[in-house]
Specification:
By secondary structure, this protein is an alpha+beta fold. 35% of the residues lie in helices and 22% in strands. The protein has twelve helices and 16 strands. It starts with a helix and ends in a 7-residue tail after the last helix.
Length: 450
């Protein structure tokens, strides 16, 4: 029987766009996952990846920024692709290089962070995958230096600033894409009117490079969905069950926000923090959140562009599932590391193939993840510079979150840990206790092997 990826490749290669002006592009396995996740969400909302940059007020020229953003979208096919389903086959349909760049006014009593949360909640899934929003503290807030500082973006002594949100649909990007977008957006802004226009040949070459990269990725994914790999994942995930309820209406705390968050910076351990250590720390958090005796599906992104592919923008990171057994008080480090290395040998097996294999092996898992772990190297993310001014990247918490809880780890001079949780699933008290268990697990010295 053909794998899901083989079937997708066969269907895509038989597609005929009927001479339409907008060409069709294939989607990666990671993009198929986002289509699946969106279909499982009762509101059909997409996964959004926002980056927030704080600048001195008056730094950003919106017309110049809009021209720079359109140049990026004209060059990179995925930034002007619209997801579509043609003959039951997911595709990207290329559209014009439209990038909304909007100034967002704060409503009375609303902070800049509140305003940005509001526009992200109103994100229309059918529009462009890249959108930019600029706002600042309202006049009343600027006059009243005692205004709210809960946003995490501004402090009472730092009111004369504006914040730029660069927001992408996750189906159009991964970590490598984010770094390039920040770098190229700043370069195009700096060039301004001196930037050379893109020739039709340049645009066509980028479309061809993108198509080739995705087809190479799909070929690799098809090989990774071998019978042996699917048997491995079926055995590995047979005991997995979701512990959190299906997505429902977002609850909120007295502050009106649907998600909670906690963060902490820790010194880098001698030898660094290994990924298996982070997995074990997430296991400790999951034991608090869900109790002991469960096998909780924890996902993490992994992968890269296929060999020989051009470094195009897009979503090439698969989501790998780690079965987190909460019944273990503390797994031996070599046990977690060994299981993780075995998983990495099959990490290219697409997510939907893995879900199908688990269910065929007897799991009741639907494909929803109860937790997510991401790791980022701060040294690889260039700063956003506009008009010679370097923006300060910041966080705006309290946005709706896709899963019950997510842990992000930023590695730099210190290890910065951040955990967010859905308040419709976890209370703040329980989640904060889970975050304490996670940080305690990372602080504890690793047991000596042998």
């Amino acid at each position: 029987m053909l794998s899901i990826t083989h079937q997708y490749l066969d269907r895509f290669r038989r597609l005929d766009d009927g001479g339409e002006a907008s060409p069709l592009l294939p989607v990666t396995g990671a993009q198929r996952r986002f289509v699946l996740v969106r279909a499982m969400d009762p509101t059909g909302r997409p996964d959004l990846v926002p980056m927030f940059f704080s600048f001195p007020r008056g730094t950003v020229d919106l017309r110049r920024l809009a021209a720079a953003a359109r140049r990026l979208a004209a060059l990179h096919p995925v930034l002007r692709g619209r997801p579509a389903v043609l003959r039951a086959t997911p595709v990207l349909r290329l559209g014009p290089p439209e990038v909304p760049v909007e100034r967002v006014a704060c409503a009375p009593g609303e902070s800049a962070a509140d305003a940005l949360r509001r526009v992200l909640r109103a994100w229309a899934p059918q529009g462009p995958p890249l959108r930019l929003f600029l706002t600042e503290e309202g006049a009343a807030a600027a006059d009243d230096r005692s205004g709210s500082a809960e946003s995490g973006a501004f402090e009472s002594t730092d009111q004369a600033r504006e914040v730029l949100a660069v927001v992408l649909d996750h189906a159009a990007c991964d970590g490598s894409s984010l770094a390039r977008i920040v770098e190229e957006l700043g370069a195009a802004y700096a060039a301004g009117g001196t930037a050379e226009g893109l020739s039709p040949a340049d645009v066509a070459a980028e479309v061809d490079a993108y198509r080739e990269a995705v087809l190479l990725q799909l070929d690799e994914e098809a090989r990774a969905a071998s019978p042996a790999a699917l048997e491995y994942w079926g055995d590995r995930l047979r005991a997995v069950r979701e512990c959190a309820p299906p997505p429902g209406p977002q609850a909120s705390a007295p502050d009106g926000l649907p998600s909670g968050s906690a963060d902490l910076s820790l010194p880098v351990p001698a030898g660094g923090a290994s990924f298996p250590q982070l997995l074990d720390a997430c296991r400790a958090a999951a034991a608090v959140l869900y109790g002991r005796g469960h096998v909780v599906p924890l996902g993490y992104p992994w992968g890269g562009r296929p060999p020989g592919a051009a470094p195009v923008l897009g979503c090439f990171l698969n989501t790998v599932v780690f079965p987190t057994a909460t019944g273990q008080a503390a797994a031996a480090p070599e046990e977690t590391a060994g299981a993780w290395w075995d998983d990495l040998d099959r990490a290219a097996t697409p997510f939907d193939e893995v879900v199908h294999a688990a269910r065929a092996a007897g799991s009741g898992w639907t494909g929803r993840l109860d937790g997510l772990l991401t790791v980022d190297d701060a040294r690889r993310r260039p700063p956003l510079r506009l008009g010679g001014v370097t923006g300060r990247e910041t966080h705006i918490d309290g946005r709706p979150v896709r899963g019950p809880f997510a842990v992000s780890v930023t590695q730099g001079p210190e290890i910065h840990l951040r955990m967010v949780w859905d308040r419709a699933v976890h209370s703040d008290d329980t989640a904060e206790a889970a975050f304490a268990a996670l940080t305690d697990a990372l602080r504890a010295p690793a047991p000596m092997a042998g």
